[in-house]
Amino acid sequence: MRQHCALKHGILKEVLAEFLGTFVLVLFGCGSVAQTVLSRNTLGEPLTVHIGFSVGLMMAVYVAGGVSGGHVNPAVSLAMVILGKLKIWKFPFYVIAQFLGAFAGAAAVFGLYYDAFMDFTSGILSVTGINATGHIFASYPARHLSILGGFIDQVVGTGMLVLCILAIIDGGNIGAPKGVEPLAIGLIIMAIGVSMGLNCGYPLNPARDLGPRLFTAVAGWGMEVFSTADYWWWIPVAGPMVGGVVAAVIYYLLIELHHHRDEPEKPHEEEEEEEEDEEDDDSSLKDKYEMITMS
Questions:
Q1: What's the rounded Cα separation, in Å, for the pair 112 and 109?
Q2: Which DSSP state fits 279?
């Protein structure tokens, strides 16, 4: 069966890995929000949501990391392109897979809790109001947050995520032991969640936010998911992309650029010295032979 079904092209394997990894992230993350909201905080709280997204990201990287790198986030993929760690032609394939995985993850959460949704909302799915459920799937700003403030929030939050990821996978830095990287990456989300979640709930991921938002638009919440809060929807899409690029440039200029690199010419120089020594030995042998023959 392996011979007949196994994929031959590397990009197809990577696309499937990104799809499944992002699916896992959204299922655990949005699932933790759904359990909290639909139980009216009796089976969840902000801390359980932080744990859900942290463990969800950790498991997503374990699922996809060995195949595609486990980006599960267009902002991370773009940062890898900027640093030359991902070929640019692969970038659109990664992004499409991530959006589809997030959309499918949101659909799975809705299907899992369908009866609870109907009971909680009496069949009326809304983005605002006392029985609002749109925020289970996508981010919406707090009342105090302006558009500019939200954009800065996403640039800073995603920048910290990408910056820390680059440090964890940097072989020239302390890094993390092999196989422990996903755990360390999950802890980044925990740190961001408990320190930067007030404004809009730290989406930090265009696929994780826009994919489920598209699902809610077609699943009954309507176009209100895009128009709410002065058309907020583009902030968690554009902000993280900018933050990922800024973090990649900062990490490269301040850290990675200054790593000590061994000179590649040293082995070549040593080979030349060995060849010269051999030539000297050969010439000395020839001299001795000539002296013997002359005598």
A1: 5
A2: H
Q: How far apart are CA 210 and CA 265, in angstroms?
A: 49
Q: What confidence tens digit (pLDDT) does each residue in 55-91 have?
A: 999 999 999 999 999 999 999 999 999 999 999 999 9
Amino acid letter at 186?
A: G
CA 9 to chain centre: 23
Place of tokens 């900018």: 242
> In the structure encoding, which two tokens stand for residue 226, read together?
């895009």
pLDDT, tens only, 94-115: 999 999 999 999 999 999 999 9
> Smallest Cα–Cα separation from 17: which of 70, 54, 55?
70
| Token couple for 181 | 């990287």
The rounded distance, in Å, linking the Cα atoms of 21 and 101 is 7
Q: Count the neighbouring beta carbons within 10 Å of the beta carbon of residue 91.
A: 16
Q: Scan for tokens 């006392």, then name that residue.
A: 130
pTM as predicted: 0.87
Contacts with 284 (C-beta within 8 Å, 6 or more apart), sequence order: none
